[in-house]
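Quick one, T. Sequence first:
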Amino acid sequence: MVDESVSPTSLLFLAPPAPAFTPSLPDELDELEGEPESGAARSRRRRRGRGGAGEGEGNAPQTPQQSQPRQRREPELITEPQKVKGSTRLEAKKQRRREGRNEGRRRTVVTESEFLARREAVDRAMVVRSKYDRIQVAVLEDDVLVEHYVAKSSEASLIGNIYLGRVQNVLPSMEAAFVDIGRGRNAVLYAGEVDWDAAQAKSGEKNMPKRIEHALKPGDRVLVQVTKDPVGHKGARLTSQISLPGRYLVYVPNGSMSGISRKLPDTERARLKRILKDALPDSAGVIVRTAAEGATEEQLTLDVQRLTTEWATIQRTIETANAPLLLHSEPDLLVKIVRDVFNEDFQRLIIEGDDALDTINAYLGAVAPDLQERIVRYDGDDAFAEYRISEQIDKALERKVFLPSGGSLVIDRTEAMTVIDVNTGKFVGQGGNLEETVTKNNLEAAEEIVRQLRLRDSGGIIVIDFIDMVLESNRDLVLRRLVECLSRDRTKHQVAEVTSLGLVQMTRKKIGLGLLETFSEPCEVCAGRGVIVHHDPVVKHRAADGGTRKRGGGRGTAATSGVKNGIGSAGTHAITEDVRNALSMIAKSTIHPDDVEAAPVNGAAEGEAEAIAASQDAAAPESGNALDAVLDALPEPKAPGAGRPRRRRVTKPATTSEN
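Structure tokens:
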């Protein structure tokens, strides 16, 4: 049937279909969700809905209990310690990696122009001094000391050494194993540093729980590498994830991941990725260093082949060796620093000492001949004195650091963390207001804080107390300046968010001894605490006689009781029994009856003359009584406040004479 009112030129308007209306359920019917609903229940709900609209007058009013919303179930109060499913250290490692990945997604890629600008903005130099049976390496940025390394010729660091150890003890509750590496004190291997792929392959179980008691047993041989030197009462820190460092890259056997330094520009990263795709074996991974910038394909291939051969030698030695045994030793400090730190960013390498010069020339000639032209031989008396390195080291050992503008930093190290306090000091600003002055001081402090962290090699938790700023933009500016300066730091670090109290908290990896530990030793008296503890309370600002300095006549008499002529037990400089005997001998040898008779008594008090006469009558006084005779001849000291009375001036009102 065709509608006759519709013509070929008519306009038809078509509306979209209306969505289905689903009424919301009341609170008291929420518990019916998920259960099959009968037709009677649906009809009752419809009648209730219609009755609420038209028959509201006949319905009974709702009670207060029906009108109240349903109460939510309170969370269960936990009163006992909870445990993590699996390994606690592995779970903590996963959380750190997750946070690192989130931070890496927000990190911007460095362009080539920015990379070159950063390189040209700073004048870097390295100074090496081989003297006094030790080697010192200093890194200068714009003639300012930022890093310092020192090692004696007889001492060597264990970091990087590979050992075939033997497990001595496994502590499941601590998720750690103690391994004998042949260095006297046992080293520690935590569950987070265990190579679980190798452990599963060794046990033959595909779904082996990642618990350290399943991977290691007492008496097992284990291949480990040192990541931290022993410090204090703590042994060396180990890992079973082996890595072999080279000049341009770090070779990771049995690894499937490869990484490139984020400090390199994006174009250089892409070039290195193409080269390593063909040069790497399938069963290994690498981490490309910043020093690989500009390296040719031949240099990278030779570095990979050398490290692969070295790993094959270690594997052959393990088959027939007995634990504990050193399998691979890192070179000395000089070669290690030049290998890891010295690159294209440095303009010159100043060397003092013939042995150090020959060692560096031989190493750079083998791995980086293009950097040999930057070596400068120093022929003066002391390179550290000429470049003011020793002076800057002495200042870095102090607790308080002064900023160029007049502010200061106070750096305190505790057992748990390193605390840095920022002060304005003498910096009062130039115009502007307090917010601007404080922000300028914090910006200058951020740069100096990073320099002090690198120079002192501070590690662990670091808390920075900047001066409070009102504007959020200023706080972000100071935090960005801190992160930007930390980009020059080679040591792994992480800056966390700012706390509610305005404190900036960060972490920095602790590898070896710091600058203070290298140039100091704990005090024998206070054991490094900084105070001397007494058994009795110590009263500050004591008087010379041991009492308190009080004003007023008659006060302090009790403090001087029992003290006669400065001799007693209450004085600070009290005369001991030995001194008393010595004075007795002197008095016995100097006092004679003839001399006493001829001695003039002019000006002597009457009591003194009688005492001297009494001493003359005594025949041959004994040595023990000679000192008493001399002391008794002296006048008694006056009590405090009992001296010459003060004159009181009394002013009388002026009287006028009447005529």
